[in-house]
């Protein structure tokens, strides 16, 4: 059956109607889409229209999309014309992407879910949006998020409200990239982009049966993105497959002069991460089991899934080192957070928003919020800044802050001493919380503890489901700038287990 997308003009002066091809959108990948383009099965315009129709038909219950890009169809049409003329497809040619609403995108508001920015339309695209569009990607829509990216627990904004988990609407999709997570899981777009200060790529990816890449700090530019704490902020892919996330990584990684921390990635990026997609990648790999996290207040069903994942990896040829301890871990993990929101936000407002009436955190507080959670956080940041304990210790990046460097060195020293490729642990030790009790049930968030502070890469992939049809993920922690190893191992695990499934 064909659906119809129609436009009726004012007073009935014009009428146009375009058919929407029936396209099976569930679990579509980049390679499948490109094959369809080559075969003439459908066009990029057909695909964009199909996704928009699916969003309009299904997102009212989930509430993941904040705004559909009004030029997405025109962009798709231009890419179709290019392909017809050249016969060539760019790496992400005609691939629709869901973009978190804190990333500058021309023609769409960048609100970060906040009333203060609800009418902010950036003059330029963020660096990563430029790179993705150069590769042929189509920004399909902006996604809802936790306001100002404050919450790892849930995704609630003043501009859009509460996003629900598509696998169980009574539960959270996690935060703060919950809109991207829910939208990609529900097959509202092919690819997704999130940001991660503490857990906000990996947490929602785990709760939505997705692959989430928190890459090494400095591998991908954060230019043109509303910050939470730049010392920790990372932007990265949220996808249904490791292969698609890796294709995105190839495009997004690289130096950007406007984000100086990316200089640390020079000479450390391979020609293509795609070369490391190896179904047999776990053979001979040494996997360290970090029970310090995996056994901390863990739900029995999560524990069972995690132990089964270890068995699966052993069956796929890995050597399981169970378990691994990091000397002085509990002491090293303490006092790592620094509250730099005021400083980083005010710098963003000055560079991009450029409004006299919106230049300070006090202006943001004055404009207000509809979220009680965000209100509490904003009030806290008015008087809180710097390191919570020992404020005399400077707050630096992962390569200059002595506490952060010591933490990373201790972990990598342990990995080196046991010749480990990665450490693994559940991304969450508890299932997704209910929306009505999201704070009380916020437990077991392992993503916050290591990678945000050490700068190391940490990837999450699906490891199955627990009661209530709730997804769970396993996290792979690697050495700084060793994404290629994480790609190899997560791909092999994914291909050997196939835990990903679409919501019912």
Would you kindly provide a written description of the structure presented here, covering whatever features stand out?
The chain has 504 residues and is an alpha+beta fold. It has a single domain, classed as Amidase signature (AS) domain (Amidase signature (AS) enzymes). It contains 16 helices and 17 strands. It has helices at 30-39, 44-62, 72-86, 127-134, 178-185, 202-207, 242-252, 291-294, 300-315, 329-332, 341-353, 361-367, 372-383, 402-417, 451-454, 483-497, and strands spanning 3-8, 15-20, 65-68, 96-100, 138-143, 156-157, 161-162, 191-196, 211-214, 234-239, 286-289, 319-322, 338-339, 386-387, 422-426, 458-466, 470-477. An eleven-stranded mixed beta sheet has the order 3-5-4-8-10-9-16-17-15-11-12, with helices on both faces. Strands 1-2 form a two-stranded antiparallel ribbon. Strand 6 and strand 7 form a beta hairpin. The two termini are 22 Å apart.
């Amino acid at each position: 059956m064909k659906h119809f997308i129609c436009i009726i003009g004012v007073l009935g002066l014009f009428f146009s109607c375009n058919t929407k091809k029936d396209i099976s959108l569930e679990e579509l990948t980049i390679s499948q889409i490109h094959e369809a383009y080559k075969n003439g099965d459908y066009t990029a315009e057909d695909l964009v229209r199909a996704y928009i129709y699916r969003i309009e038909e299904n997102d009212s219950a989930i509430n993941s999309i904040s705004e559909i890009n009004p030029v997405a169809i025109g962009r798709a049409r231009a890419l179709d014309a290019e392909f017809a003329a050249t016969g060539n497809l760019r790496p992400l040619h005609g691939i629709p992407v869901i973009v978190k609403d804190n990333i500058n995108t021309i023609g769409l508001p960048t609100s970060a879910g906040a009333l203060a920015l609800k009418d902010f339309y950036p003059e330029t695209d963020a660096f990563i949006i430029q790179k993705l569009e150069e590769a042929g990607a189509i920004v399909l829509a902006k996604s809802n998020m936790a306001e100002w990216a404050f919450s790892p627990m849930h995704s609630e904004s003043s501009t859009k409200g509460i996003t629900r988990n598509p696998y169980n609407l009574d539960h959270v999709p996690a935060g703060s990239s919950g809109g991207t997570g829910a939208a990609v899981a529900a097959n509202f777009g092919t690819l997704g982009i999130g940001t991660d200060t503490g857990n906000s790529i990996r947490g929602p990816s785990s709760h939505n049966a997705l692959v989430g890449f928190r890459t090494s700090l400095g591998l991908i530019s954060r230019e043109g993105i509303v910050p939470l704490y730049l010392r920790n902020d990372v932007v990265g892919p949220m996808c249904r497959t490791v292969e698609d996330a890796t294709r995105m990584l190839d495009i997004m990684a690289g130096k950007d002069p406007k984000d100086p921390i990316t200089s640390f990635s020079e000479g450390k990026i391979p020609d293509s991460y795609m070369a490391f997609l190896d179904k047999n990648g776990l053979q001979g790999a040494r996997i360290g089991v970090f029970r310090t996290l995996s056994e901390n207040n863990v739900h029995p069903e999560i524990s069972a899934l995690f132990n089964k994942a270890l068995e699966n990896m052993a069956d796929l040829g890995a050597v399981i080192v169970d378990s691994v301890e990091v000397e002085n871990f509990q002491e090293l993990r303490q006092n790592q957070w620094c509250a730099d929101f005021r400083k980083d936000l005010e710098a963003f407002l000055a560079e991009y928003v450029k409004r006299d009436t919106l230049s300070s955190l006090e202006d943001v507080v004055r404009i207000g919020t509809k979220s009680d959670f965000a209100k509490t956080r904003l009030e806290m940041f008015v008087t809180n800044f710097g390191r919570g304990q020992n404020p005399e210790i400077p707050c630096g990046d992962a390569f200059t802050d002595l506490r952060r460097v010591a933490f990373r060195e201790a972990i990598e020293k342990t990995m080196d001493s046991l010749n480990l490729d990665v450490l693994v642990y559940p991304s969450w030790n508890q299932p997704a919380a209910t929306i009505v009790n999201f704070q009380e049930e916020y437990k077991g968030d392992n993503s916050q503890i290591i990678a945000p502070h050490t700068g190391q890469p940490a990837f999450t992939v699906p490891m199955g489901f627990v009661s209530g049809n709730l997804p769970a993920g396993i996290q792979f922690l690697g050495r700084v700038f060793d994404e290629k190893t994480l790609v190899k191992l997560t791909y092999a695990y994914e291909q050997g287990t196939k835990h990903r499934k679409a919501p019912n």
